[in-house]
Design goal:
Length: about 950
């Protein structure tokens, strides 16, 4: 036989390349999108759709993007594109946080001390602006490379005039309501950055601190102990881990309902909590000690609140008297139950001192050095003061014990050094004036959707427990606090009219004008001090907290740019989980404070990126992943696929090994697309036009129902923001498609006559799968799906077909052709085929065994006799044997009478009957077609159909 039938087969034909070469081709596709203006084309297509606005949280414009940025921005792109694909109107304006200490610090570092000292504030602000602009451009290019669609040419920047004026609008609303006030209270203070810090600017790390027990001499022996026979001086034994705050001591706080006793040890009478005596004795090394007892031998005790008002001599400033007070913040888990209280150095201390009218001392300056009020320790840095004070206490004979402890301590988020608590005059947002805390909690619990749902507990507890918000900062690069003070008496000057004048100033000239113009140049002429009537006013020198700045973006962006389709409230905020105490919270408080509504309808958070071992990424560990390097090696679509595959609500691991695995998964998707395109090269929409459900074979109907089920699962995943569910549904689908249907269908695709109804039925199924996959995966594999769209089969194109998959819209169940039956019928079909797969699994296992025993080489060389289980017997009678032959890819199938024992079908593998057809390689009777005696009858008909003439 001299014939070669290879050229008579319907082999796949497509120019869609097997290798994506993504690092080279993706930048070209970005150029195409820019030329098409895809972002605005999508908006135009969906202009009448329901709006969905994801409001972008601004990354800080300082350095190139890192893998955390990429993770965050790709997630946002999933949200926006999945909504756009489903017809929503989705304007997305990216933003950058451009003010703040880090940029100012980098400019200072670049200038050096001498130049910095000679640089005016306006010039410094100009340099900071240039620095921010540089990195906005760097980061914008990085985000574009990831395939993220946005209003890149018109982002929001926090240093632009229109944004800066929004800060004043919110400040005005909240100040005039009484929610913003100036006060003196302890706040986190960074002595290196010389500024106050909000809770959101604090990070916690372990520190080793001194733990000391000190006795304060009381002015008199409490009567109850004196009556029990105690003689001599009485002391209250305190415990502290901040010896440097002892010069500011003005009180000792007790637990109100705890029992306090007097311990006699080392010749001193010391009051402490009864519950902690043994613990203290062990730390102090007391070999013997006694408790003051009454005549009946019972330990004499007083409740903490019963000692309120007793006085003592302060430990450093002996000229000052302190008093015993009580508060619920005192616990008995460690220490002595007697808490050294310095109202100027701690929030709890400050609050309890207010309750008991205890004075506030502040013997620490902006540089973190003790002042003259600290007596013998004046001039010492707070860190240097600790050992000096401890030694001094030892010399005084009042130090009872000293040890070192390792504990979590607040650090500055910028310089990463420990902070101090320090009372200063600052501007605050009151959490309880006008019910801000209560209203914010109401919004959290009943008005906002949290993704995941448990996140409401996290932000809820933070808002419930947070102190008043310190919003002032002692820096140059930012939006000034928009108030004035009287040059004569120092009274604050702030009215609706002055605020409006500042809003107008910022709108027209930007906040820089605050530092270059005199107030009289822009304030109303009748501006004067409400106390003394002086008309000379001075501008506030402090600037606003950057969290306030980004927090008011709901006004500076969503409200100010409403004409562009942005909405207030926004439909979603999405940022890292740390933003529950940052941007999510500052946005909520400013919006509730100004408008009494939350700024968002839903909030979604993502975890942090860590390495394969779960470690944070750092330069020292060398485990960082640069998204630019990933794009250069694997392509952005591989990075996007990784984002879709993880549970973003938790910390997510990424490494070279993980990226290799994701790259393998990407190839599975790509190869599937290539198979679909290759086998639809001669298929057209006309072929499907008159096709009915009954024209499909059972396995075709099953795949149609399975595709519809996948579509529904993907849609539910996108709707619930479960992108790993989208990934799993599509990846499992293409895996099964490749392992079963594509393998089964190859015989019909390649061997049938080109126009055979059986072949066209398979192609109809593949066409539906392609239509669905390219649309549902476009939000994730944006580059690849757009490439698939370019190679769309010619016969399947239509008039007006959009130029990008991103414009293709969302597939619908009703769009399937031929039309699907009702959902109940499809569900029943899927259930039946689940049983069919169970039979197939048993057959496949038997064939593998036969192949291993060298009984067969390929499955086509075998026929099988199957004895089904009782549970599967019914489904084996549902279809003709030919359906099972195709599913199992064997030459023959017979079902034996009876049922198999156990949970698995019994399968006997026998040699195939007939001869191997040289064209299709199936074992069949040859010679049924006289014109083509060497092939099976089916192949003979196919050869007739294409006009093939056998060689002589």
């Amino acid at each position: 036989m001299a014939n070669s039938y290879k050229d008579t087969m319907n082999l796949p034909q497509t120019d869609f390349p097997m290798r994506g070469n993504l690092p080279t081709n993706e930048p070209k596709r970005l150029e195409k999108w820019a030329e098409l203006d895809v972002y605005h084309r999508v908006l135009e297509k969906n202009k009448d759709g329901k709006p969905f606005v994801l409001h972008d949280g601004p990354p800080y414009a300082n350095g190139p993007i890192h893998i955390g940025h990429a993770f965050n921005k790709i997630l946002k792109d999933f949200v926006v594109k999945s909504h756009a694909q489903r017809g929503y109107f989705t304007p997305y304006v990216p933003g950058w946080d451009c003010h703040g200490q880090p940029i100012e610090h980098m400019v200072e570092k670049t200038l050096g001390p001498e130049k910095m000292a000679a640089t005016s504030q306006p010039e410094l602000r100009k340099l900071c602006r240039a620095w921010a602009e540089k990195y906005v451009n760097v980061q914008r290019d990085g985000f574009k490379r990831l395939g993220v669609n946005a209003e890149w040419d018109k982002p929001y920047l926090t240093f632009t005039p229109n944004f800066e004026s929004g800060n004043v609008e919110i400040f005005k609303e909240m100040y005039l309501k009484g929610s913003v006030y100036r006060g003196r209270k302890p706040i986190h203070w960074c002595k290196r950055c010389h500024t106050a810090l909000a809770e959101a600017e604090i990070e916690y790390s372990d520190e080793v601190s001194p733990s000391i027990f000190v006795r304060f001499k009381m002015d008199a022996m409490p009567g109850v102990f004196e009556a029990a026979g105690a003689q001599g001086d009485a002391y209250v034994l305190i415990w502290t881990t901040t010896p440097w705050t002892l010069p500011a001591n003005t009180a000792v706080s007790l637990a109100p309902d705890a029992d306090y006793c007097m311990v006699k040890a080392d010749g001193a009478n010391m009051i402490m909590a009864l519950e902690l005596v043994e613990q203290v004795a062990e730390v102090a090394g007391w070999e013997t000690y006694d408790l003051v007892r009454d005549g009946a031998g019972e330990v004499v005790t007083l409740k903490g609140k019963q000692m309120c008002g007793l006085t003592y001599t302060c430990p450093i400033r002996h000229d000052l008297k302190g008093s015993l007070i009580y508060g619920d913040h005192v616990t008995l888990d460690t220490g002595t139950g007697c808490v050294h209280t310095a109202p100027g150095h701690g929030q709890d201390d400050y609050l309890v001192a207010l309750e008991f009218d205890v004075p506030l001392l502040m013997p620490v300056d902006d540089n973190g050095c003790l002042t003259d009020e600290a007596g013998p320790f004046a001039g010492l840095d707070t860190d240097d003061a600790n050992p000096v004070i401890i030694e001094w206490l030892r010399e005084q004979g009042t130090l009872v014990a000293e040890q070192k402890i390792n504990h979590s301590y607040p650090h500055c988020w910028r310089c990463h050094e420990p902070v101090i608590f320090r009372a200063t005059d600052q501007w605050f947002v009151s959490m309880d004036k006008n019910s801000l805390r209560e209203d914010a909690l109401r919004a959290i619990n009943s008005e906002v959707r949290w993704v995941p749902d448990w996140a409401k507990n996290r932000i809820g507890s933070m808002v419930a427990d947070r102190p008043d918000w310190c919003i002032s900062r002692q820096r140059s690069w930012g939006v000034p606090i928009p108030v004035f003070k009287c040059a004569k008496c120092g009274e604050t000057v702030a009215t609706a009219e002055t605020f409006d004048a500042v809003i107008e100033l910022f709108n027209t000239e930007g906040a820089d004008a605050w530092f270059t113009k005199e107030p009289k140049e822009y304030l109303p002429r009748n501006t004067k001090c409400p106390r003394c009537g002086c008309t000379d006013v001075l501008p506030e020198k402090d600037i606003l907290d950057v969290w306030w700045e980004s927090g008011v973006s709901h006004t500076s962006v969503c409200k100010h740019r409403a004409s562009e389709g942005l909405t207030f409230p926004a439909d979603m905020y999405l940022e890292g989980s740390d933003q529950h105490r940052g941007w999510f919270q500052s946005s909520l408080l400013t919006s509730i404070g100004a408008y009494d509504v939350p700024p968002y309808k839903s909030v979604m958070h993502c975890g942090f990126t860590v390495d394969e071992q779960g470690r944070k990424m750092s330069k020292s560990l060398g485990n960082g992943i640069d998204p630019a390097e990933v794009c250069d090696k694997y392509g952005a679509d591989v990075l996007r696929l990784w984002v879709s595959s993880v549970d973003y609500s938790q910390d997510v691991s990424i490494s070279e090994n993980i990226l290799k695995q994701v790259s393998d998964a990407y190839r599975r998707f790509r190869n599937t697309f290539r198979f679909l395109l290759g086998n639809l090269s001669d298929f057209s929409n006309e072929h499907m036009a008159n096709m009915t459900w009954d024209d499909l074979e059972p396995i075709d109907q099953f795949m149609m129902a399975k595709t519809a089920a996948m579509l529904a699962e993907v849609e539910a995943g996108f709707e619930a923001y479960r992108y790993n569910s989208v990934y799993r549904a599509t990846y499992d689908f293409v895996n099964d498609l490749s392992a079963v249907y594509m393998d089964v269908a190859k015989d019909r695709l390649y061997s049938e006559a080109p126009n055979s109804p059986r072949r066209r039925a398979v192609q109809a199924v593949l066409a539906n799968i392609l239509e669905v996959l390219v649309r549902v995966l476009a939000p994730v594999l944006s580059f690849t799906c757009d490439e698939v769209w370019e190679f769309w089969p010619e016969g399947m194109r239509w008039d007006g077909q959009p130029e990008s998959a991103q414009l293709a819209g969302w597939p619908a169940r009703a769009d399937f052709a031929p039309a699907l039956p009702d959902e109940a019928t499809c569900a029943e079909l899927l259930g039946a085929w689940e049983q069919m797969y169970a039979v197939r699994d048993a057959v496949t296992k038997a064939l593998e065994k036969a192949r291993a025993e060298k009984t067969i080489n390929k499955s086509q060389e075998a026929r099988v006799v199957v004895t089904p289980t009782a549970a599967l017997a019914e489904v084996t009678r549902r279809f003709d044997a030919s359906v099972f032959e195709e599913l199992f890819i064997v030459s023959g199938v017979k079902f034996a009478e009876g049922t198999a024992d156990g949970d698995e079908c019994a399968v006997e593998v026998l040699p195939a009957e007939g001869e191997k057809c040289p064209r299709c390689w199936n074992f069949r009777t040859l010679g049924g077609n006289a014109a083509h005696p060497h092939v099976c009858e089916r192949c003979g008909g196919a050869l007739d159909a294409i006009g093939f003439v056998e060689a002589e």
